[in-house]
């Protein structure tokens, strides 16, 4: 820079007399420029083309040389002539130029500059000076344009007879790249090609690399195509640049194409070329070719790099080819390339995807022992895997280990653990982890949402509301998902006013409810039996321009079916189809099941036929609903046809299907057929539930086969199937009928100890059985128990007790019970008066059934 300042100072000392007539203002400006030049940063130096325009010389603009300035004197011609005398001595030419440059009034034109550049390029001794001149020129606000300068240089070369040498052009092109003037560099490059000047391959590579780094991918590839048209394929490095450009653009097949073309024309490829193409092949998941290329590399004597092995191993895991991934890992290690964190994490992910979390944990221990430091991603993967398989003890151990290693947990890891605790119903553990996450400042709204949904699904809405308040107190704003979870909880509890209030809160906070919000409310109102408000929600949803989802449409149809409005559901389905809804088996199952519940089996079959005509295949639920309907209306033959049809279609029958068939046969008292299906159910590996057992127990009880019924009860206990109220009612009723009072009362005590609360039917069975066997005192205790449980005895219960006391001659107690019945607001029926008049109870059908 100091040398440049000297040049400018000398330039003003020897200004020609012809310039003494310049305006005084211009002289002052130029002197000021000379005096202050040393303080101007290099990048702010104005190029010679702009300095020359400050002089009042005549500017001659021509199409080819718009920047050429010719002085009114012949000084420029003299400089050119003098430079030519130094043509064979570039150093003296440069010295002369520097001297002239220091003189006042010197105007450096493109002609002079071009000639000097050509002279300097003629010998290696001045190549460094050539580079410096070009760098200074380009780094400034250079002018003329690259195209004009290149053409001046070419014209100069031809005019003065310089040997054809592209050095000056290559240096110029390199200077444009170094100055980050890529557009100018491209213009320079294309101008050279137009004039058949072939840039050096390394310079060409530098330009392409710069373009790729600046995301000028399309331009780089276009430029390369122009090179290829002239037979300029470049070298291996050129191939690297072009292939990497393809990778950056996501055009993996093109990268492979360039590789094959280079190989086909005999270019001696290097290991880097193979590594890049392997990456491209792995991106498009062609594992066979990737492994073939790896093999070629090894045959050529190269050890694939860590990155190359990593790419192939990761691709193998993604494609599920775990055996090959493990083989490559072993090959990698045996070649002296250490397995890295990415390889280890990928292999662990593969094990976890296959459900082999324990194998992933073993690999983790091996990797840690080998000195590879696990990162947060590795811990995250394993904690998620352990949480998904329910091994929360190991998941939490890993969490603790991670913290001891100084690796900070992420909110993602916390959420994995919370989900795992949910799966194992470990609510207290989840609360403890949440508190820790809050202290660390990593708990977010998703963390709270997981626990909110958990609590709401459990029906613990009050706890959910408390958690909500805690979330708000920590400055975490509820999301729409938070509100949807709360609405779900209120709907499950049947608190629809609270659910609707949550919707208003959403609107007040400026959030926009979505289809999930309204669908939850619609479903909640239908389950509450409030169809009208359900439709109000549906209309409100449409008014808010929220498009119903398929789930919304199905919820409406299902809700109508469950509230006894199945014919209306059919009409709605037609309307929904007009709106673009495409019904599925779920849709028709709701309608079919609705008709079955109403006993309209013909309408159910009509819906089934319509379903088939629409090309919708019935599933297990469809068949089960129809089988259940046929059994209810005693069309067991049609139920069996449906069962056989399912078998012919190789559909897997579930417990619900067998339950419907077994219950149908039990009600027909065909226990042989019921037992056959019960055995079939066990044979295919299904576990009978309480519903199936209850049907079988009730069937045997009606046939007075209490031994078989009690054996089934014992199997329930052995198989840990929980006995419910219906189970105990059937067994106790049968035992009381057989006079096995002690056994019956033992079962009753067992039932109470399990927390099962008797209902009016159970109490009726007990009192009837005790009275029939003269156990009036115990029957009276049962009556008091009913009163204690706030269960109002029925007229049938009082009739049974009154009849029992009449039979025993306890008339006073019989009349007291009659008065008590009246006090409870019960209206005596004809049977009551028949007992009081005749002193006996005619056994009713209900009692006989009990």
UniProtKB/TrEMBL annotation:
Belongs to the PPR family. P subfamily. Keywords: Repeat. InterPro entries: PPR_rpt, TPR-like_helical_dom_sf. Transmembrane segments: none annotated. PPR repeats lie at residues 165-199, 235-269, 270-304, 305-339, 340-374, 375-409, 444-478, 479-513, 514-548, 549-583, 584-618, 619-653, 654-688, 689-723, 724-758, 759-793, 794-828. This is Pentatricopeptide repeat-containing protein At3g54980, mitochondrial-like isoform X1. The keyword Transmembrane does not apply.
């Amino acid at each position: 820079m100091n040398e440049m300042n000297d040049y400018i100072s000398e330039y003003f000392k020897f200004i020609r007399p012809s310039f003494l007539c310049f305006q005084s203002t211009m002289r002052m400006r130029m002197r000021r420029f000379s005096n202050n030049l040393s303080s101007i940063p290099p990048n702010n130096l104005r190029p010679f083309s702009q300095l020359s325009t400050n002089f009042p010389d005549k500017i001659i603009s021509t199409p080819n040389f718009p920047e050429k300035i010719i002085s009114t004197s012949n000084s420029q011609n003299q400089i050119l002539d003098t430079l030519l005398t130094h043509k064979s001595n570039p150093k003296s030419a440069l010295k002369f130029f520097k001297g002239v440059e220091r003189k006042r009034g010197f105007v450096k034109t493109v002609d002079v500059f071009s000639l000097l550049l050509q002279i300097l390029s003629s010998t290696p001794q001045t190549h460094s000076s050539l580079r410096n001149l070009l760098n200074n020129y380009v780094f400034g606000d250079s002018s003329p344009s690259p195209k004009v300068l290149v053409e001046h240089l070419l014209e100069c070369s031809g005019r003065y007879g310089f040997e054809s040498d592209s050095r000056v052009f290559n240096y110029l092109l390199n200077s444009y790249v170094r100055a980050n003037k890529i557009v100018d560099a491209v213009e320079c490059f294309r101008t050279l090609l137009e004039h058949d000047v072939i840039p050096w391959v390394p310079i060409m590579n530098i330009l392409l690399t710069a373009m790729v780094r600046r995301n000028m991918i399309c331009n780089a590839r276009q430029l390369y195509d122009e090179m290829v048209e002239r037979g300029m394929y470049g070298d291996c490095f050129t191939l690297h640049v072009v292939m990497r450009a393809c990778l950056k653009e996501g055009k993996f097949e093109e990268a492979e194409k360039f590789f094959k073309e280079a190989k086909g024309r005999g270019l001696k490829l290097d290991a880097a070329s193979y590594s890049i193409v392997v990456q491209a092949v792995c991106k498009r998941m062609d594992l066979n070719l990737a492994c073939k290329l790896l093999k070629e590399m090894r045959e050529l004597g190269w050890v694939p790099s860590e990155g190359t092995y990593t790419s192939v191993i990761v691709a193998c895991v993604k494609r599920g080819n775990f055996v090959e991934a493990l083989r490559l890992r072993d090959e990698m290690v045996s070649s002296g390339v250490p397995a890295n964190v990415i390889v280890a994490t990928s292999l662990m992910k593969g094990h976890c995807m296959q459900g082999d979390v324990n194998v992933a944990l073993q690999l983790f221990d091996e990797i840690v022992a080998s000195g590879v430091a696990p990162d947060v991603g590795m811990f995250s993967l394993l904690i998620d895997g352990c949480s998904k398989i329910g091994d929360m003890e190991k998941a939490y151990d890993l969490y603790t280990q991670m913290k001891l290693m100084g690796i900070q947990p992420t909110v993602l890891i916390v959420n994995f653990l919370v989900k795992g605790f949910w799966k194992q119903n470990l609510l207290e553990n989840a609360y403890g982890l949440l508190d820790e996450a809050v202290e660390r400042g990593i708990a977010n709204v998703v963390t709270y949402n997981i626990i909110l949904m958990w609590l709401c699904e459990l029906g613990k809405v009050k706890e959910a509301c408390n958690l909500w308040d805690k979330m708000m107190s920590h400055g975490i704003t509820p999301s729409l998902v938070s509100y949807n979870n709360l609405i779900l909880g209120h709907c499950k509890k049947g608190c629809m006013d609270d659910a609707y209030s949550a919707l208003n809160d959403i609107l007040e906070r400026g959030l926009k409810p979505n289809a999930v919000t309204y669908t939850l409310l619609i479903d909640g109102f239908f389950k509450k039996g409030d169809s009208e408000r359900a439709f109000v929600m549906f209309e409100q949803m449409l008014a808010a321009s929220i498009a119903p989802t398929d789930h919304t449409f199905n919820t409406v149809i299902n809700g109508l079916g469950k509230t006894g409005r199945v014919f209306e559901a059919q009409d709605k389905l037609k309307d929904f189809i007009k709106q673009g809804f495409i019904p599925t088996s779920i849709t028709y199952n709701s309608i079919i099941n609705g008709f079955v519940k109403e006993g309209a089996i013909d309408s159910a079959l009509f819906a089934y036929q319509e379903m088939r005509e629409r090309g919708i295949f019935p599933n297990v639920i469809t068949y089960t609903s129809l089988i259940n309907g046929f059994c209810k209306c005693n069309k067991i033959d049609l139920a069996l046809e449906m069962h056989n049809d399912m078998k012919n279609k190789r559909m897997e029958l579930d417990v619900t299907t067998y339950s419907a068939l077994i219950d149908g046969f039990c009600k027909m008292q065909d226990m042989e057929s019921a037992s056959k299906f019960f055995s079939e159910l066990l044979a295919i590996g299904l576990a009978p539930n309480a519903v199936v057992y209850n049907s079988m127990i009730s069937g045997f009880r009606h046939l007075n086969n209490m031994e078989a019924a009690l054996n089934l009860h014992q199997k329930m206990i052995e198989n840990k199937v929980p006995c419910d109220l219906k189970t105990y009612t059937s067994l106790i009723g049968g035992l009381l009928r057989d006079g096995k009072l002690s056994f019956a009362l033992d079962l009753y005590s067992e039932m109470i100890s399990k927390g099962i609360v008797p209902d009016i039917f159970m109490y009726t069975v007990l009192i009837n059985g005790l009275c029939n066997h003269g156990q009036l005192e115990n029957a009276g205790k049962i009556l008091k128990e009913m009163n204690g449980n706030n269960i109002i005895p029925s007229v049938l219960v009082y009739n049974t007790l009154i009849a029992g006391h009449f039979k025993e001659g306890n008339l006073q107690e019989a009349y007291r019970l009659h008065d008590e019945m009246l006090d409870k607001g019960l209206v005596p029926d004809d049977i009551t008066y028949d007992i009081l008049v005749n002193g006996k109870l005619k056994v009713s059908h209900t009692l006989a059934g009990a």
